[in-house]
Amino acid sequence: MICPPKLVPGDTIALISPAKAIEASHIDFAKAYFEKHGFKVLVGANAKNEYRYFSGTDKERAADMQWAIDHPEVKAIVCNRGGYGAVRLFDEVNWANLLREPKWILGFSDITNFNCLGLKLGIETAHTTMPLNFQENSVESLDSVINILKGEENAYIWNTHPSNKHGMATGNVVGGNCSILYSLLGTPYSPNYENAILFIEDIGEQVYHLDRMLWAFRFAGVFDRIAGLIVGGMTDLKDTATPTQWTVEELVLEHTRFRSFPIAFNAPVGHISDNRAFICGRIATFTATEEQSYFFQ
């Protein structure tokens, strides 16, 4: 995997909105935040626009991504928010310059599409919080973004969970939003799960849909191939009127039974305030014990 160069004070970050429209105040806050850390910040021409649900037409949003990729001074591309729309840019953007001049792409949720695209291209990307959430994020969450940009390591410890399966794994990190990973199964953009540490998170899904996605991963052989599983925030899941009464832990353990890899729940990643950064495409070590869970990358 190609690791984009680390940033130093004075380097330039581009803020773009490749999916849903976003209020300008969130972009302004993020711009000031990165400037406070010594970076220059450029804002895409369509980043603050609105076209129906999106921040612009497909071509306008793609043009901002292309501008950020091709810009000779931009060293990192921060996606302002998710929602929906990133996948619609896959065929609109010429990604070749990203191979010639690698730069970080940061984001999560719908931006999991770009994390998976990076894996296919052979370039590391960062699954991180985004400007939409900066004002509510924990200090640790924001610090983890800066650490990645500066080329520094991240180490996370979180409380154990009664449903954890104890063990240790080392592997290439893949993952992100469960719905996006599910949507890419069977496509050229589905990650290579062989001996990988998989992390998943989601928001606003029906519990039965989580079960459906886990069945798909199971049938696709994902759980036969991974080295470890990290389950982050499963935020605002909804049950049916006549409830299934399933819990996240119950479903995950059902679909991974007879597998020996470690599993840790309640990881600090996802649609939660403490949303720590994970580098997709880089080796990490992950441990789940009776006392705590630990991730180092």
Automatic annotation (TrEMBL):
GO molecular function (one): carboxypeptidase activity
Residues the record marks as active site: 109, 201, 271
Keyword Mitochondrion listed? The answer is no
Does the record carry ATP-binding as a key word? no
Domain LD-carboxypeptidase C-terminal, first and last residues per copy? 170-285
**Membrane-spanning residues:** none
Question: What residue stretches are annotated with the LD-carboxypeptidase N-terminal domain?
Answer: 13-127
A Pfam family: Peptidase_S66C
BP terms from Gene Ontology: proteolysis
Q: Which keywords does the record carry?
A: Carboxypeptidase, Hydrolase, Protease, Serine protease
Q: Give the matching PANTHER family.
A: MURAMOYLTETRAPEPTIDE CARBOXYPEPTIDASE, MUREIN TETRAPEPTIDE CARBOXYPEPTIDASE
Family recorded in the similarity comment: Belongs to the peptidase S66 family.
What name is this protein filed under?
A: Peptidase U61 LD-carboxypeptidase A
- Give the organism, scientific name: Fluviicola taffensis (strain DSM 16823 / NCIMB 13979 / RW262)
